[in-house]
Amino acid sequence: MQTQFTIESNGQGLYEFTDSVRNFVAKSGAESGLLTLFVRHTSCSILVQENADPSVLHDLVAYFDRLVPDANNSQMSWLTHTAEGPDDMPAHIKSAILPTSISIPILNGDIALGMWQGIFLFEHRQAHMVRKVVGHISA
Amino acid sequence: MQTQFTIESNGQGLYEFTDSVRNFVAKSGAESGLLTLFVRHTSCSILVQENADPSVLHDLVAYFDRLVPDANNSQMSWLTHTAEGPDDMPAHIKSAILPTSISIPILNGDIALGMWQGIFLFEHRQAHMVRKVVGHISA
Amino acid sequence: MQTQFTIESNGQGLYEFTDSVRNFVAKSGAESGLLTLFVRHTSCSILVQENADPSVLHDLVAYFDRLVPDANNSQMSWLTHTAEGPDDMPAHIKSAILPTSISIPILNGDIALGMWQGIFLFEHRQAHMVRKVVGHISA
């Protein structure tokens, strides 16, 4: 069983869509199996992270902006792929470091997330974007 | 077929559990298929790495501690999520950089690890922890 | 259905093998399913990245060489695992940061890559290497 999730982003940050994923699994009727999510872009990521305290999400964004500064930053003056804006190549680098696909077992009809885990689209671009994530359930 | 592995950690480091995974696959009787491991936490990771020379594991821990220093380090003074201890937010960041799930094909009744590959829980917290990893075998 | 891809590398960089993967999926006859790729080494990675502009690949290599310099670099003087050459332990670290496995849904007989996505072996060693990637298709 397959679906495609559409997630609209408005700037860098983490956009949770755990409920949409849970609804898809519930509708599938699968009692056990494997859910895989795959993002069809190279400038955003799929991340399972803590969804309890928003300060975790804030600090994640801040950390990765320090690890991979925008092209305007003098530390990044060596970048050559700059034609698509100062946040484009850094977005590709973040999408290499962070996951493009994630697989979560289904137990008793639900994904086996831990108590504090949520599923997020991690957007690395500053502009408004419409992102596509394919969901697939295997037996 | 599904199982849950329990791994107790005593501080930051890599804890190998390749043999437990191989036993699970052998008991399943699967000749071919796909094994997926998923860790139900956001402050530790699942990593396939070299299991021949312990100095590799030592250097991995040392590297990630330099890449993501504890909150006590002046480089990390911008962190906001610090209520759960100086190693908590850095553990979330490491768990974003390192894998939460890994999938390994099963060939001839065994996981297709290369000669030097082992499967590790990579613990990012300093306290004693009891970690849960779900294992799933698809056809 | 399973296969093994062999990719020869000649130094650090990204080696695209999207066409080989697409041929394998086409030959399998699978209309829908899940393709998983797993690399049997701990000093190279599997990466889905932009395959349109070669400058993206150039900058990715340059970034990771800055993030994880060779052992000859004074920033890395703390490394202990240095017997196998100055690029060996950095290659292990890069292989921890970048993916060892990736899973891509199959839709309408083809992998669900986005318009700009290609599949690459990311080689982290300088010497000529022969790399093995296992491909597996689940229902």
Question: What topology emerges from the helices and strands here?
Answer:
The structure is a homotrimer of 139-residue chains.
Chain A lengths: L1 E9 L2 E4 L1 H11 L4 E7 L4 E7 L3 H14 L20 H10 L3 E7 L2 E2 L5 E7 L4 E11 L1
Antiparallel strand pairs in A: 1-8, 2-7, 3-5, 3-8, 4-7, 5-6
Describe the structure.
3 copies of one chain form a homotrimer. By secondary structure, chain A is an alpha+beta fold. Chain A has one domain (2-138): Jelly Rolls (Sandwich), CATH 2.60.120. Helices cover 25% and strands 39% of the residues of chain A. Chain A has 3 helices and 8 strands, in the order E-E-H-E-E-H-H-E-E-E-E. The first copy, chain A, has helices at 18-28, 54-67, 88-97, and strands spanning 2-10, 13-16, 33-39, 44-50, 101-107, 110-111, 117-123, 128-138. A 5-stranded antiparallel β-sheet of chain A has the order 1-8-3-5-6, with helices on one face. In chain A, strand 5 (101-107) and strand 6 form a beta hairpin. The termini of chain A are close together. Chains in contact: A-B, A-C, B-C. The A-B interface holds A 32-34, 47-50, 53, 55-56, 58-60, 62-64, 66-67, 97-99, 102-105, 107, 112-114, 116-117, 138-139 and B 2, 34, 36, 38, 40-42, 67-68, 78-81, 89, 92-93, 95-97, 99-101, 103, 132, 134-136, 138-139.
